[in-house]
């Protein structure tokens, strides 16, 4: 795909740093040097091309979720969860539409932004706390090793 046809997907520093820590692990470091630049693929294959969605799930997402004791429920669940959590954080629906690349904000509102019960909110807070604790631990172990945003 020509560079002019590619779209960038923004990422928050916390996710960026978690990905760097994962990709710079001893077994994967030789394959993921593209993450050093702003123009590299977020999930490159060992050949330097973008990793396909099936490969991303089997090589990256499932192992990380299994390690955390979380089941993978597919891409639609992932996108609904993203839209719902962004909405709860106060992100405007039009911005969520753009992130999900929907042609209509109505699709985003009707199909992707869901009402959240208190159990789900508590679970997401636990995940956020665990992620923050993991980042703090990684920062202490690798002081000066990982590039930080």
Task: Briefly summarize what is shown.
With 149 residues, the chain is mainly α. The protein is built from 6 helices and no strands. Helix 3 runs antiparallel to helix 4.
Note the main sheet.
none
| Low-confidence spans | 1-5
Distance between the amino and carboxyl termini:
28 Å
Helix content: 40-55%
Helix-strand pattern, N to C? HHHHHH
User: How many strands appear in the DSSP assignment?
Assistant: 0
Alpha carbon gyration radius: 17 Å
Whole-number tally of structural domains:
2
Outline: globular
Which structural class do the helices and strands define? mainly alpha
Describe this structure in words.
Helix content is 54%, strand content 0%. It has 149 residues and is an all-alpha fold. Helix 3 packs antiparallel against helix 4 and helix 4 (93-100) packs across helix 5. It is globular, with a radius of gyration of 17 Å. Mean pLDDT is 76; it is low at 1-5.
Blueprint (SSEs and pairs):
Elements: H1 13-23, H2 53-67, H3 75-88, H4 93-100, H5 105-112, H6 118-141
Helix pairs in contact: 3-4, 4-5
Please give a handful of descriptors for the protein shown:
149 residues; mainly alpha; 2 domains; 6 helices; disordered N terminus
